[in-house]
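look at this stuff:

>
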Amino acid sequence: VDLSHLSPEERWRVEHARMHAKHRGHEAMHAEMVLILIATLVVAQLLLVQWKQRHPRSYNMVTLFQMWVVPLYFTIKLYWWRFLVIWVLFSAVTAFVTFRATRKPLGQTTPRLVYKWFLLIYKISYATGIVGYMAVMFTLFGLNLLFRIKPEDAMDFGISLLFYGLYYGVLERDFAEMCADYMASTVGFYSASGMPTKHLSDSVCAVCGQQIFVDVNEEGIIENTYRLSCNHVFHEFCIRGWCIVGKKQTCPYCKEKVDLKRMFSNPY
């Protein structure tokens, strides 16, 4: 069709009609693609829920591995060297701690080493997340101008700290749970069936296997001693690590349910 004799407005209308004719039916195709995507997401979510319920151990291991390794690809691709350095340091120490936690027989100092390391990471992640959140809120309210900081710089700083706090906080939580499972089965006082594999003396902590020298009613110099509702006694630091860092809500010896709010006003 010769468009030279048409006005610009008429030429635009003809071109617009041609474009619609060329892409006729694409709207239906796009709607089908959206429906397929939604259905896929729903089915994938259902499969993930079933996987987590039926095989929680493999689910936790796979998700932990992905969360640990996937950021490494983007870090190298985007040249985020600061994150890479922190990731390498965290991975090296965590790998050493995890190695110690999976050894048999379990060293007497290993449980405390594991709990101290993951407790330290928790505190650092928590503090980093709080500082990042405050930086973001200060930027939203314009308080960054009081320190002559550009809004984009302040927001980048806050979001980066929030990411570091959330990422390493979730990562250490999952690693701590995995280590707690390995140590629980290795120590020998705990079993999945709920029946202890050997008798626990009143003067021995079922988490670390070491002697308890401070009475429940006494004030300890380094740490106190706690007695659960099932009357089993543990080192303060061991039972805090077992219940909080390792997300274990049961007694390490008899698997009785533990009320953390009643036991500790401040878990950490």
